[in-house]
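retry 2 of 3: previous attempt timed out while embedding xanthosine-5'-monophosphate. Reduced batch size to 1 and resubmitted. Inputs unchanged:
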Amino acid sequence: MTDIHSQKILILDFGSQYTQLIARRIREAGVYCEIHPCNRGLDFIRSFNPAGIVFSGGPSSVYDKGAPLVPKEVFGLGVPALGICYGMQLTARVLKGRVERSKKREYGGADLLINDRKDLFHGIKAKRVRVWMSHGDRVEALPPGFTTIARSKNSDICAIRDAKRRIYGVQFHPEVVHTPKGGKMLENFVFRVCGCKPLWTMRSFIDSAIADIREKVGSDCVVCGISGGVDSAVAALLVHKAIGDNLTCIFVDNGVLRRGEAVKVEATLRKNFRMNIRRVDASKRFLGKLKGVSDPEKKRKIIGNEFVRVFEEEAGKIKNVRFLAQGTLYPDVIESVSFKGPSATIKSHHNVGGLLKKMRLKLVEPLRELFKDEVRSLGREMGMSAEIIDRHPFPGPGLAIRIIGTVTAERCDMLRAADGIVLDEIKKAGLYKKMWQAFAVLLPIKTVGVMGDERTYENTVALRAVESVDGMTADWVRLPYGVMERISTRIINEVRGVNRVVYDISSKPPSTIEWE
Ligand code: XMP
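retry 2 succeeded.
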């Protein structure tokens, strides 16, 4: 079996918002890489044994007091290095070039004029190549040993190389989509300069992960909470491949799930993959706890705590359980974002810390190294249907944070029906895969309507559809009028208690995707 981790690129993070993109581009090329904070030090870098190092961009100026640099010995390890934007400036600074502080930021597209296509720019033939700039400082004088391999109209030094030591620097960002040939440049770096091979594929990951899980778990039993989402389903499937029936999945129906959402996942895992699944109908319990609560954060806490309680009760019934499997992904793990402290994206929804302690369980997190797109392709590779893999994200607190005000069984049913219609129509129109999320929100507002000869006084549903890459920012979808019309007509005709549908045209920021 090939060791998929045998060649790895180390990405040192200097705080750029694009660092994860560098990692994703390199992984897409089939090479394993990890992101670490820029201040990990020489010993760490040596022991990591990288095939190449990338210094990310970052918000600092190399002349700022306390600006993060790297020890100059890093350049003497015989390991190829690529500095991106701030990474290039720090390379120039540490190796005794001159970096000019500039007051004006260069931001946006630029044309790159390449004068050397031997390695980093190999196979990029166009005379002018579009690249994305976002920098303040710039390199004014090359460090000894370096030559320029590309320039632009604004700058004579856009890309540099020390051929002997295999050190490169680029002023622009090859990792963003606005640099169309950027992926090719990063491929050139990892294959031509670092000599890596494309070993990192989800097919080879499966074998390696299965071996790891078996070694860790041995003949002990594992429990896994299934939520209906992609991550937990893929994690469970992988653990199941490794240890078969020693895995039991627990699926808690909290009463605030979408129509058919988790049920479908459960059915697939049980029928197609013959996994052990215990379904607990705890909807009454959850709705009881939610009674009279309208504060969104309280709703989140109640659902999170109750989940842990139900899960613990169920897991307690299984013999020999020593491990809890979770679908934690790499972005939750990266202790990076160097100066902002630990990643702010860590989910607190299912707070399993207490659970682990009380039940004396250890964690198995087989997706810890993966980005979301890798999890999806891993799921596909293991034969999971597109229906599960491509589903929109659904928040842990479920419909409870889409029912504005207090949550009752009746209002849940109303929203479930409306939401089901939204998804039906979006799918029928072929739009589902083109957006991040589409859903209905039930508002605590009654308005007057007229049905037949009768005056009505009923509820309002808001329709939300957003496009987004990662959920951090989002824009509302310009839905075709025909689709809006069908959704509205069907909701008002088919869902009892609703007589009005409105469309949410707010983007994030300043609004959020969810209403609560
Ligand atoms: P917002 O509303 O913050 O949502 O723009 C961003 C993304 O996160 C999801 N979301 C949650 N997911 N527990 C979750 O597991 C939560 O409490 C929660 N709140 C929001 C939301 O659906 C969107 O995809």
